[in-house]
Amino acid sequence: MKKIYLYGNWKMNMTRAETEGFYKDFAEQVTGSPLAAAMGKTLEAAVFPPFTSLGTAASAAKSLASCPAPILGAQNVYFEPKGAFTGEVSIAMLKDVGCTHVILGHSERRTIFGETDEFIARKVKAALDAGLVPVFCYGETLTEREGNAAFDVVSRQLRALSALSPAELEKIIYAYEPVWAIGTGKSATSAEAQEVCAYSKKLTGEMGASSAAVLYGGSVKPDNAKELLSMDAIDGALVGGASLKADTFLQIYKGYAGI
Ligand code: PEP
User: Fold this and answer.
1) What is the pLDDT of residues 203-246, one digit of tens each?
2) How many other CB atoms are found less than 10 A from the CB of residue 209?
3) Which of 24, 82, 233, 255: CA 20 to 30 A from 211?
4) Cα–Cα distance for residue pair 147/132, rounded to 1 Å
5) Binding-site residues, ligand 1, Cβ < 6 A
6) What atom of ligand 1 comes closest to residue 103's alpha carbon?
7) Sequential DSSP letters for 172-236
């Protein structure tokens, strides 16, 4: 069975108390179940809490006793190391709190906060230089899809990383997230997701990353996950809404693995 990346983007949700509750439920779900054996082998689970809950998540992970903890990542970072950047958080700060991964280029950062391809590429490079794994999000809007521009947009967004070396490109986790499928309840079909994820692998291959991991994100839920995760170009899921409850989050993998 292939390894499945199950990554949960909590967005602007989850107080510290709710984060503790998530880890408690996570441990209850995993301990003594086939999930415990899968974790770190055929299941790579990660959560991306908001900045204010990262410390709580790191402490909760340490107190999980025998239960393997999910990887910890942040939802954003700034590329400058320190200084007068009000409202921003540095890579060193993320590492200090226990993060190993960081989501970059999420469509909400691109559309609501105006982040450009070039700006995101600088963040990706800074994260890689510091040894953080970037989870690089990209994908087309509905207008772009309807205008038959999905592949051009995806190509432009991925090629914004072309200054990186093959070894750097290989370290990135790619997350294809069509904007029209995020938080809408309307997932891409497995064929649509497969088509763009396969294209992404081809493109990253041409850029030098021969075995890049490509996740699909956009309204992934337990009831559509099996079909999506069974597609050969899809290595896992970046999950928003359905990642806020440990039970629902883990059901996404359980349904796929038949456990
Ligand atoms: C996301 O925010 O990355 C996402 C995929 O959200 P949702 O699963 O809620 O569509």
Assistant:
1) 999 999 999 999 999 999 999 999 999 999 999 999 999 999 99
2) 22
3) 255
4) 36
5) 9, 11, 177, 182-183, 217-220, 238-242
6) 3
7) PEEEE--GGGTTSS-PPPHHHHHHHHHHHHHHHHHHT-TT-EEEEESS--HHHHHHHHTSTT--E
Please tell me the predicted confidence (pLDDT) of residue 134: 98
What confidence score (pLDDT) does residue 175 get? 98
Q: What is the CA(197)–ligand 1 centre distance, in A?
A: 16
CA separation, residue 182 to residues 38, 155, 196 (Å): 28, 20, 16
pLDDT in tens, 78-118: 999 999 999 999 999 999 999 999 999 999 999 999 999 99
186 CA from centroid of ligand 1 (Å): 11
Nearest CA to ligand 1 atom 3: 240
According to the model, what pLDDT value does residue 169 have?
Answer: 98
Among 3.40.50.10800, 3.30.870.10, 3.20.20.70, 3.40.640.10, what is the CATH number of 4-257? Answer: 3.20.20.70
So what's the pLDDT on residue 66?
A: 83
Mutate to test the pocket of ligand 1, among 182, 216, 244 (most ligand atoms within 8 A of CB): 182
* Ligand 1 atom closest to residue 220's alpha carbon, by position in its atom list: 8
Average pLDDT, the chain: 97
Distance 11 CA to ligand 1 centre (A): 9
**Across the strands, what pairs with 46?**
7, 71
216 contacts 228 by C-beta, under 8 angstroms: yes
Domain assignments of the chain as residue spans, ordered by start: 4-257
